[in-house]
Amino acid sequence: MDKGTPKRIAYRILTGFDQHYRIFSRVNAGAPERFLAADWAGVQRAQKQRIHIYSQRVSDTVAALMARLDSLTISTELWRTAKGEYSELLQGHPQAELAETFFNSVFSRLFRHRGLDNQHLYIHTSSARRAPFAPHQLCWRFSLGERPREAFRRALGYARLLGAFEEVDSDLTRLCDRLTPLIDRLQVHDVEFLKPVFYRNKGAYLVGRLIGHRGESPLILPIRHGDGGLSLDAVITRQDDCSVIFSFTRAYFMVETDRPALLIRYLRHLMPNKSWAELYSAIGLQKHGKTEFYRDFLHHLNGSSDQFVIAPGIKGMVMSVFTLPSYDVVFKLIKDSFAPPKESNKAEVREKYNLVKEHDRVGRMADTQEFSNFAFPRHRFSPTLLEELQSCAPSEVELDGDRIIIRHLYIERRMTPLNIYLDGADDLHVHRAIGEYGNAIKQLAAANIFPGDMLFKNFGVTRHGRVVFYDYDEIDYMTDCNFREIPPPRYPEDELAAEPWYSVGPKDIFPEEFGRFLLGRPEIRKSFMAQHRDLLRAEYWQGLQSQIRDGIYPDIRPYRPECRL
């Protein structure tokens, strides 16, 4: 039937993608106005809106195709030809790699993740190679010469931010004073910035590099609001600090680009340790980030031979977690049933993980990638792991010949569980880790997230030494919690009774009890009480709730205090 020809199918899917990217870009285009107006509530709304755009456009495209197709069957010839036609349409398309992922999403939605192979899908990209490193197509370049201040002033002007600064001359003086040793050491002659400005939460970021006769350095200039206007808040020149800014634990950037592959290639030049998947996700293209991850995963499987095993650490009551020792992620699936005292169900746990996807993660919650019907080679599973998964989550595990298929799976970056880290740490590293642990809890709370289960096993330590929360089945909004002090006992016998002498509601939380579960080791208690004693007082939590209800958004910077100007 003509309306279901491969060419028409291909054209309709590409039309759906182009509509998606126009709307996606329109949301990004509003970021400068929201930033300049300090419309932080609007920033939060736009982040959530942008996440939902993709799924809606896929649904619309699927509905349009269902009206055209005579029957929903996987015709190898039809879809193989449609994919070929689609590839022809993508020749020269500025977002070709993203459009391939959109094709995959539409096909998977139509056929409920059946027939997932390279005949029907872009398991491997049709693009011959990565986009070239082409700064001349993306950047403004300014000669430092004898007047570096003027070069940076021009950069702020090109970014259309100069007129909103409070004291730009003072800011530029501090910036040049900070950069002078590096400029001298590298014999820097030019500074280069990407034309698009990166926006996230309460900050704008100029991203580029210093270019010298003796080398180059990444350069990120965070810009924030002060009392009377904008100011340069920090200067970032270390790769590790750049990596933290683009971390998997933070909300996605808003940035305008019609050639994302070129932009990502430039970012990878600045941060070579970052994966393609993580960088695509960092600018809000998390669906293609999943595609990049999957391709890298298949490549790693082909070049390795170790087996998947149960992840180290204390087993969770809600999730079963496994890993491949040679690969830096963990795979998590929800168990079929939860042991007491857990009272939630699978649907509620999935809602919690979706909440994290949409919420500001403030650098303290790991991003998760959600997959359906993820296939693993059966021979790579250890017998112990397979037995564990079939025992804990039989409804999620399907044995299909030489494959093991997990019907619903979450994938996160692997970190060292905090409890394991503390067991092997000396006093200095214990003190630093406990400081980071308390900071993580405080920053989450300021962003309206109560972790729920604050045991050390639910937090991880990143390669940068940051402590990150990663177990979401008990999180709640701070504003939904009722923080209370334990009332004094009525009689001496009350303290010896098996049951509390006071009523406890389902949302009641008693912070003074935290120490009983967390601070058993003397060195941990000493460190915690020195740095975060306030977390044990209901008054502290109630004060944060008041700020949140008053619309006061946290001012959490994604860089070290030493980087600030």
TrEMBL record:
Catalytic activity: L-seryl-[isocitrate dehydrogenase] + ATP = O-phospho-L-seryl-[isocitrate dehydrogenase] + ADP + H(+)
EC number(s) reported in the record: 2.7.11.5, 3.1.3.-
Isocitrate dehydrogenase kinase/phosphatase (AceK) regulatory domain residues: 10-304
Cited InterPro entries: AceK_kinase, AceK_regulatory, Isocitrate_DH_AceK
Compartments where located: Cytoplasm
GO molecular function: [isocitrate dehydrogenase (NADP+)] kinase activity; AMP binding; ATP binding; phosphoprotein phosphatase activity; protein serine/threonine kinase activity
Chain ranges passing through the membrane: none
Keywords recorded for this protein, A-Z: ATP-binding, Cytoplasm, Glyoxylate bypass, Hydrolase, Kinase, Nucleotide-binding, Protein phosphatase, Serine/threonine-protein kinase, Transferase, Tricarboxylic acid cycle
Signal peptide: none
Name of the protein described by the UniProt record: Isocitrate dehydrogenase kinase/phosphatase
Naturally occurring in which organism (per UniProt): Ferrimonas sediminicola
Source taxonomy: Bacteria, Pseudomonadati, Pseudomonadota, Gammaproteobacteria, Alteromonadales
Gene: aceK
